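User: My collaborator and I are trying to settle a disagreement about how two of our proteins should look. Neither of us wants to argue from intuition anymore, so we agreed to look at predicted structures for both before our next call. Could you fold the first one, then the second, and keep them clearly separated?

Assistant: That sounds like a sensible way to settle it. I'll keep them separate. The first protein:
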Amino acid sequence: MSKEKGQDLKPMERPQLGEIDGILLAKSTCDEWSRIQNFQAKPDDLLICTYPKAGTTWIQEIVDMIQQEGDLVKCQRAPLNHRHPFIEWARPPQPSGIDQAEAMPSPRILKTHLPVQLLPRSFWEQNCKFLYVARNAKDCMVSYFHFQRMSKLVPDPGTWDEYFEAFMAGKVGWGPWYDHVKGWWKAKDTHRVLFLFYENIKKDPKREIQKVMQFVGKQLNEATLDKIVHHTSFEVMKDNPMANRAGVPITVMDQSISPFMRKGTVGDWKNHFTVAQNERFNEDYKKKMADTTLTFSMEL
C-alpha cells in the first residue's frame, strides 16, 4: 500500500510535443492521429471548440447546466472533463477521448481545442453544431502561461519572457492563437457555429447564456436561467469540485503553483506585459489580424 502511495507522489514527466501539419500537439495525440482523424461524428453531436484557456471549462458548465435544465445534482454527476469527452486527448493507458466519445450515448457533447484545418472531417460532413468561445490573445497568453506552470500534462513554459515569444510565434500546444480564432470565425459563415466572446459572457452572462440556450434548442424559464447564471459565475465555479479539478493529484496539477481556476478576469495581461512587450505585441497583432473582421476587447 505504502509503495503505491509513494508511486503516486512521483512527479509526472511532462509530455513531449509532436507536430501535425505545422501545429504542435502532445506526442501521444500525434501517435493516435489516424484514429482521431477517422472519428465518426453524428449529426446530433455538439462540439465545444476553444483555443486553450479561452473559457473552455466555463462554457462546458454553462452547456451542461442548460442540458440538465438547471438540475445541480445532475451537474455534479462527474467531473466536467469526464462529462464531455475531449476528442484529441490521448494518454495511454487511460481511455482516449475517442474511446470515451464512442462509448457515450447520443446526443453527445464533445470538446476540442483543434484548429479548423485539423478537425476530423466527419464533423463537417455531418453538419454538426459547433460552439466556439474566443478570448482576447493577451489574457489567453497569460492564462496559458500559468496553466503550463502548474500542469504536468503540458510542457514547461519557461520564463514569462520566453513564453511571450513562444506564444507570439505560435510555438505552443494547438498552434497559433491568431490562426485558430480566424479559422473558426470564418467557419461560421458556412457551418452551424455559434461564435461567442469570453469578454461578452463576462460582461452580460445572461444574454450570452440565452444565445447558447437558443442554439442548443432549449427553452428554460427565467428562474432557471438566473440559477444557471449564478452557478456558472467564476466565484461559484471556483469552489465547485466538479469543475475546479480539485480531484486531480498534485503530481499532475500542482494548484499551489497556480489554481486551475485562477482569476477569470478580463485585462489581467496588464499585470504581466511590460510596456515594451505590449508595444511589440500590438504591432505584431495588427499584422497578423489585418486579414479578418474579427475584433476583441482587451479590457472591460
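The second protein, kept apart from the first:
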Amino acid sequence: MRGVFVGITTLDVAQLVATAVAENQKVTSLEQLICAGGPATNAAVTFAALQALQVRVGEAEFKPAQPLLVSALGLGTSSEIIRADLCRQGLEIVDCTDVSAKEEENLAPAVSTIFVNFENGSRTLASTNSRLPLDVEKAVSGVSNCNEEVCVVLVDGHNYALA
C-alpha cells in the first residue's frame, strides 16, 4: 500500500507559549519543536507512522511501503534539516526544486514560525509560503517510477504546477 503526497514542505519552528504573545512582547517558550511541515508533508509523516503502528501491533497483512513525498525542498541548511527529519520519519522524497532557476542563495525553503498558546490551544503562524521554483518533470518522473500500487493520493494545492 503506497501513498503519494504532493505539496509544500516547510521548516516549522514551533514554540509552545503559556498565553498569547502581545505585540512587542518577548516571552520564553515552554517547549520548542523544529521539524519538516506543510499539509502534504504532515500527511505523509502520519501515513508512515500509521503503517509502522500496524506492523508493530501485528495487524498488517502487507509489507508497508514508504510514503512518497513530492515537494520542493530547496537548498541550504534549512533544507538539510528538513531532509534529515523526513528520512528519520521513513519518507521517500522526490525533490522537484528547479536548481537551475535561481542562484543557490535564493533556494531556501519556506519557514513557518508558529506560536501555540498553551492556555487555549490556538496558534499564530507566519510563513514565507511556497516560493521555490519547480521542476515539474522531476515530479512526473518520480511518481512514474513508483512501481507499487498507490492507494492514497493527497495534493495540498500549494504548488499548482505540481498538482
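Some points you might bring to the call about the second protein. The mean pLDDT is 89. Helices lie at 39-56, 77-88, 136-144.
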